[in-house]
Structures are given as C-alpha cells and as structure tokens.
Write a structure and sequence with these properties.
Strand order of the largest sheet: 2-8-7-6-5-3-4
Number of strands: 13
CATH superfamily of the largest domain: Type I PLP-dependent aspartate aminotransferase-like (Major domain)
CATH class of the largest domain: Alpha Beta
Bound molecules: 4'-deoxy-4'-aminopyridoxal-5'-phosphate, glutamine
CATH architecture of the largest domain: 3-Layer(aba) Sandwich
CATH topology of the largest domain: Aspartate Aminotransferase, domain 2
Shape: globular
Order of helices and strands: HHEHHEHEHEHEHEEHEHHHEEHEEEH
Helix content: 25-40%
Largest sheet: 7 strands, mixed
Radius of gyration: 21 Å
Number of helices: 14
Strand content: 5-15%
Length: 401
C-alpha cells in the first residue's frame, strides 16, 4: 500500500491514535459515542448535554437564519459578539478589552487552541508544557505544529500539580504553558498559588500562557473561576480561550473565542483566517445574547450541574467505585478498579454491552509512557438529565465486585 506522506502521521502519533497498522484511529470521544449509538447504551462518555440551553439563545439563531444572516461574518467575528465578549470579560473578571483589537471569534475552542499553537510555535526546539491528563487536542496540535510536549502530572485524589514538578518542567525552551482550568477530565480547579506560579515561571523563562477556560461557568461549592490573565504580570503574555458550547449547551454550534494583547491576537488571526476564515454567522448573534444573560443564569447552570455531580457521585459510590469529587467541569473521575477496571480502556469498551453505560478511560488523556499511573480511572459525564443519571447508576450497580 502507498505510504501517505505529511503531518497527519505525527499528529495521530502525538494524540496516541496511530494504530499498529500505521493508520489514524478516531478520537476516544468518537469511538465511545459510536459505541453508544450502536448499543443504545446511556452515553456518559463524550461531554455534551442531553437538554437544550436557554430558549432566548436558540430563538435568536432561528431568527438570524430567517432574517438573512447567512453569509460570511467578518474575519474577527461579528461586531456585536465581539462587544458581548468584552462585556462578559469585564462583568465577570474586571478584564477590559478593546473589541476591535483584543478579541477573536473562532470555530469553537478547538480552533482557537489549534490556531494559537500553530501561530505561536516556531519549530522543533520549542516546548509546550501541559498538565497531564490533558484534553486530547493538545498533544495532537503540539505534534502537528512540530513542537515537543512536556507534561506535569496531576495525581489523584485531588489532581493538583506538584509545584516543584512544574518548576522542573518550565525552562528557557518553553514556548507556551497551556493551562486548562477548570480541568477536563479531572474537574480540578487550580489554586491561586498554582496560577501565580505559572505566571512567575512564564515571566522567568519568557514563555507565553495559553488558557482553556471552556468550563469557566461550571464551578461548584461556591468557588468562582479566576482567569490566569487577571494575575499580576500575566496579561501581556496570556491568551485566554473559551467557548459557548458548555455554558449555553450548544456544543454543536462551535462558537469559541480568544482574547489577549492585540499583537498576540493578531498573530493567531494570521493563522485562523486560513483555517476556517469564519464560521457560524447565524450562531454568533445568539451567543452575543447568551453572554448578556443575567448573572442568575450563570449561577443557575453551576447550581444545576453541581446537583447532578452529587447525584452521579452517589450513584458511582453505591456501585462500588471510588469517586474523586470535581470542583468544576462536566466530569467526574472515579477509580473503577474494584469493579474490574484494571485496564480502564478495555473496561470502557466492554461496559456498554455488559451494563449499557458508556464512559471514557482516563488513559485516553495521557501519553503512552504514563498510562500505567491512571490504569483504573474512568471519566463519567454529569451533564445529563436526572433520570438518565439515575438509570445509569442503577445499571452500574449491577457490576460484579
Ligand atoms: N477544551 C476542553 C477542555 C474541552 O473539554 C473541550 C470540549 N468540549 C474543548 C476544548 C473544545 O471546545 P469546542 O467544542 O468549543 O471546540
Ligand atoms: N470536550 C468533549 C469531551 O471532553 C469532547 C469533544 C470532542 O469530541 N472533541 O468529552
């Protein structure tokens, strides 16, 4: 068979998806959602809600199509959405942005991450520091951009980084420290001390900071999200990324954004305009409406998800799993060793047939050399209807211990 040249192989290898046959496998989310569809199992795998978000937001998108908002929006994003993102950053975090220079609308956080990494990485000497487990696209995009991934482990039960290990990981070769907070898959929220140390190290080694804050409004137990960009000394070297998908239950719309100093945003735009150019004309005004919803909407979604987290946690514990209660995000990680998950990937592949539930092995968020450290850990999504979570718990309780 012909060998197909190009960057796809190192991208697939970086993501841990290059098969023994030399082909690229689908992501774990695609694999597990396909398994859910095939078996009819309850999908607590891929993180998407099973209910619609606010009707105000949905109806603006419908009206936009009816009113002819169907052509290319401006490359940076619709003016009103750019303004709404700035208002949001000011309202929640006191960050003042220039809507014409400091903001860029992207095709989800995924494109913002890819464009930022491609734009800011220079070559094979560059290193990108990430916390491991990490969201799957990070390793893939770092590999696509031709840089080296350096990992700092997050270990159970609290999944907080060891700051000495962080200090060892960041060097003069570090181009970017990529921080996902609140964190997928662990649900960890980083401490003020960790945020400050990230900024101090970035300054010391002249690195950039790229943040992924897609779960910014989904934090629990009275905690409030603090963007790293608001830490002293962070602003000039930080790009903050977020997305509408989780906040407004519109994961399929793929509206994301990034913000930061104009020169950094411009550098990302230089790449982004040749990836998608623009997207989602009809969704952009709807997300502008969403970002302007009252504070009670934002506190309400966190409260609702916290109750679901608690319900899922109870169900998992009752089924014999050891639960690591998350402070944020859609997800709960549990140690399923006691119910037979010595190898979480095999466990998750067989779970739909055995009890009708889909979940994601944490090893999918970890490089091959560290998978042993996370072998029995499984991620469950709490962003589902109460009756679905209850039924999933009943099914999991049938697992032999
Ligand atoms: N980052 C993290 C941590 C995520 O969990 C997700 C996915 N849901 C994304 C980025 C991608 O976001 P989007 O769907 O807006 O591209
Ligand atoms: N962010 C989602 C998750 O972690 C997956 C999105 C995707 O499939 N790329 O479940």
């Amino acid at each position: 068979m012909r060998t197909i040249p190009g960057a796809w192989r190192r991208t697939a290898r970086g993501a841990g998806l290059l098969t023994a046959q030399g082909e690229s496998a689908p992501t774990v989310f695609a694999e597990m959602s396909a398994l859910a569809a095939r078996t009819g199992a309850i999908n607590l795998g891929q993180g998407f809600p099973d209910e619609d978000g606010p009707v105000e937001v949905l109806s603006v998108a419908r009206e936009a199509i009816a009113n002819g908002v169907n052509q290319y929006p401006p490359g940076r994003g619709q003016v009103d959405l750019l303004a709404a993102i700035c208002e949001h950053q000011q309202r929640f975090y006191g960050i003042r942005l220039d809507p014409e220079r400091d903001v860029l609308v992207t095709a989800g956080a995924t494109e913002a991450l890819a464009a930022a990494l491609l734009a800011l990485i220079d070559g094979p000497e560059d290193e990108v520091v990430v916390f491991e487990p990490y969201y799957d696209s990070y390793a893939a995009c770092v590999a696509l951009a031709g840089a080296r991934l350096v990992t700092v482990p997050l270990r159970h039960p609290d999944f907080q980084p060891d700051l000495d290990e962080l200090r060892d990981a960041v060097t003069d070769r570090t181009r970017i420290i990529l921080v996902n907070d609140p964190h997928n898959p662990t649900g960890t929220v980083f401490s003020a001390e960790t945020r400050a140390e990230i900024v101090r190290l970035a300054d010391l080694h002249d690195a950039l900071i790229v943040t992924d804050e897609v779960y910014e409004h989904l934090v629990f137990d009275g905690i409030h999200h603090t963007p790293i960009a608001t830490e002293t000394g962070a602003w000039e070297r930080t790009l903050s990324i977020s997305s509408a998908g989780k906040t407004f239950s519109t994961t399929g719309w793929k509206i994301g954004w990034l913000s930061g100093p104009a020169e950094l945003v411009n550098a990302v735009l230089a790449v982004k305009q040749f990836l998608t150019y623009t997207n989602g004309a009809q969704f952009q005004p709807a997300i502008a409406t969403g970002l302007r919803l009252p504070d009670t909407f934002f506190s309400g979604i966190a409260d609702t998800l916290q109750r679901k987290r608690d319900l899922l946690g109870e169900g998992l514990r009752a089924a014999g799993l050891r639960v690591f209660t998350p402070s944020g995000s859609y997800f709960t990680v549990a140690d399923a060793t006691a119910v037979g998950a010595a190898d979480a990937l095999e466990f998750c592949r067989s779970l739909p047939e055995r009890v009708g539930v889909v979940a994601i092995p944490i090893t999918a968020f970890v490089g091959p050399e560290h998978r042993g450290d996370y072998a029995g850990l499984v991620r469950f999504a709490a962003c589902k209807r109460v009756e679905v979570l209850t039924e999933a718990s009943t099914r999991l309780a049938a697992l032999p211990r």
